[in-house]
Please model this.
Amino acid sequence: MVFIFSLALGAFAFGRRPQIIFMNSKSWQLAYLLTWAGAAILSLRLYFKLSQGACYFFLNWPWCAANLGSAERTMQTIVVCVIFLLLTVLGWTLYKKNKLGGLVKTSVVWLWCLLILVSGLLVAPFTSGDIIYYFGVGSSGAQGHNPYTAIREGSNPFIFPPSSGTTTGVMYGPLAVKAFSGAYILAGGNIYRFIMVWKLFMALGFAFLGLLVYRFKKILSNDEIPAKPEWALVWCSFPLLIWDWLGAGHFDVLWLAPLILALMASHYKKWWLAAPLLTIAIWVKYIPIFIAPWFVLWWWQDISRVNWKKPLQSLGAGIVLSLLVTVLSWASLWAGPQVFGALIVQSKWAVSSIFSVVYYTLHPLFLYAFKQKAHLYLTILVQSTLLLTAVYFIWPYLVRSVAILRKKLVWQSLDYIKAITVTLLVYLFIWQKSWWPWYAAWLLPLLLLLPIRGRVTRLVAWLGAAPLLFYIPATIVGGMIDDLWVFYYAVILLIMPVVYQLYCWRKNNYDD
Model:
């Protein structure tokens, strides 16, 4: 049923003229708020029980029970389906409606947004255990150890039986490690307080990033930009951002904010500022490395025979500042190339991606045909195919970049932002071996900077809400999340619609 519903939603979302006529804007806004409030109230029950003892909510939300009976499991399935289906449909609809107008009073909008954010903060982080990982890394760092090399306990007290063991290494950048350690100190080493401190930190980042995107969009766009209250309503209409940043505590806002600031600095040709801001983003999470070449090309375009000294001096100052940021970021943490060991291991993990579906589907056949060399041959085949596919999608921008290098083409700022956005779309939805719904949040701030029309409208509407559908099977099956059918679910329902829109956009050379 969920599969069929999701297909219908995809066709509806990507249709040419979607029409929603059976409820007005205020009704949709109220329904959206009540859905968030419902999820928060269900989580509040857990917080009360946490103070009385163990609460194993990660696999059994909204219960604290170690194991669920058949009746409770059925009720959990119903609750999870209702909440995520409602958030997906209501979030998508609100974005479409709010973009077109029909908003309520300013004071009501601010109150509505505040209630949404508070509800998101209160939701227990049951869809991801990453925040417990952050706590472990922060604990190691705050106690004077180097999380990249020190062996630490890797446990999760919110699953049954409670996991225990040791782990080492960190797949994130040093600035993320310092942020984890700072939150750990503020929380006094208490895991419950750490969860709320970290989630509150993400809520502030969510608000700041929304304001930042709004301000930069006003600078870039010649179109009429909505007032701040209207923009706040639009920004809060993306349930994926609220669920994964405020609810689950994912920290992508910490690298997206300096990335947007780097784009703003590049727009004003302040290379001395763009370089260190991009460096900060990289040392939070390494993802911006993949889009760094577009910043270099942007700087190169600023150079000419009559104007080369100022851009060169500005970049030189930026490189010095970037080196300073790097030294300060890695101080007491650098231990040689081994600091990237956990990142390399994680890069080999294949889950819920096109790679994972193709690899695990063909693996039995290759194992039968090639025995011990099955993994090698199959990996080469799949990655080569995906690489060629990625090149196909990026090719129009590669051709144009050559023209820019030869000084035969000049791009505007929006062209570079679009190239960066397409690059991340291709990396995440085609090349990446592992895919999780919160990764889709990377694209929303960048897409929102572009003129909202055509493919961009459909991508924003889909990415802002639909990835939440992943949590329906993920919550229900729990430990079986690595099953192949879950991978197919994610690829067919959540990844391929985006790839299709990207393909249609590519056919038009990304001009619409």
Residues 287 and 435 are 14 Å apart (CA to CA). The chain has a mean pLDDT of 88. The chain is about 70% helix and 0% strand. Residues 374-405 form the longest helix (32 residues).
